[in-house]
């Protein structure tokens, strides 16, 4: 089990789990990926712990059969849509007599940056350092080992509503899986599908799931903005179901297999056979399906375009990357989106072996980040170690053992160890 990294991504329609590890060449390989249908999450928020927990258990059981190991612990993703970012600064004096900056100084300055007023119903999930400043010299990514008198940090504070995070953790713990750490979803996706030069120049990721769409903007090497729209790919499926008078499940299968937008080489007179109610088969006109999908996709893209243009980041974005199953699997989506948003668009496919599908952007990013962190590799330089964070109410009793992490440049949020006998 120790050689495998297990990641869990809980979405509005599916729970996905993946097992991965490093090969002898230092590359991350995904050994197995599974998914299970989940009805306990709505728009990124757990609304039914039992249903979500059962989906996690089903997913993990299938993954255990696939990789032939017993899975008792995992890393999970924290959805960007339920989080918000604050910017703050921390300042400390270097403590050592020889003025060499050590790991403890970095911990202290990150802790200092967390001194900020937040609403009573929210808590600090983690800290992402954007840059360190030593005696006035900025743009320093790793200050450890350098000399100075004064250490500062410009950081992003990740906030989330306490009850929402609690319910997410309870769902995993109830499935008898211990949570080793949290990976912030926008940063996990960036590790899986974005290039370093894209993040420096400016890029927006459109992550469309079943019920919500998250827009993550990266610029200057950092995550700079999060926008959320309460619409997702299920609305396209619903349109197909209503217009063609077929069950929702059949409409979903039809969308995945045949949905396309823009110009294509298909014969518009093609008929597609699908199952209707009571095992009756009907013929669906391909051109009609295409018109239904195009109409709704166009509307969704105009909503995304409006959100981008209404923010201060539209001019800073040099390109768009689409991930997730809401839009990423639709044929012709790149050119169609580009014509509406007026930016170059590509579908983001993880480069990790075993996960070459836009559906797996987040789960591949979790495994990739944790795998590199375990090796102590400075693989991106975009983030530094995040401060440990105590989650209240997840364990009972006073014996709380801290989970150790060697992550120096990853995006894993250190948390307290959870006991599976919580329930």
Automatic annotation (TrEMBL):
<dbReference type="GO" id="GO:0043093">
    <property type="term" value="P:FtsZ-dependent cytokinesis"/>
</dbReference>
<dbReference type="InterPro" id="IPR050696">
    <property type="entry name" value="FtsA/MreB"/>
</dbReference>
<comment type="similarity">
    <text>Belongs to the FtsA/MreB family.</text>
</comment>
<keyword id="KW-1003">Cell membrane</keyword>
<keyword id="KW-0131">Cell cycle</keyword>
<dbReference type="Pfam" id="PF14450">
    <property type="entry name" value="FtsA"/>
</dbReference>
<comment type="subunit">
    <text>Self-interacts. Interacts with FtsZ.</text>
</comment>
<dbReference type="InterPro" id="IPR003494">
    <property type="entry name" value="SHS2_FtsA"/>
</dbReference>
<dbReference type="InterPro" id="IPR020823">
    <property type="entry name" value="Cell_div_FtsA"/>
</dbReference>
<protein>
    <recommendedName>
        <fullName>Cell division protein FtsA</fullName>
    </recommendedName>
</protein>
<keyword id="KW-0132">Cell division</keyword>
<dbReference type="InterPro" id="IPR043129">
    <property type="entry name" value="ATPase_NBD"/>
</dbReference>
<dbReference type="GO" id="GO:0009898">
    <property type="term" value="C:cytoplasmic side of plasma membrane"/>
</dbReference>
<keyword id="KW-0472">Membrane</keyword>
<dbReference type="GO" id="GO:0032153">
    <property type="term" value="C:cell division site"/>
</dbReference>
<comment type="function">
    <text>Cell division protein that is involved in the assembly of the Z ring. May serve as a membrane anchor for the Z ring.</text>
</comment>
<feature type="domain" description="SHS2">
    <location>
        <begin position="5"/>
        <end position="193"/>
    </location>
</feature>
<dbReference type="Pfam" id="PF02491">
    <property type="entry name" value="SHS2_FTSA"/>
</dbReference>
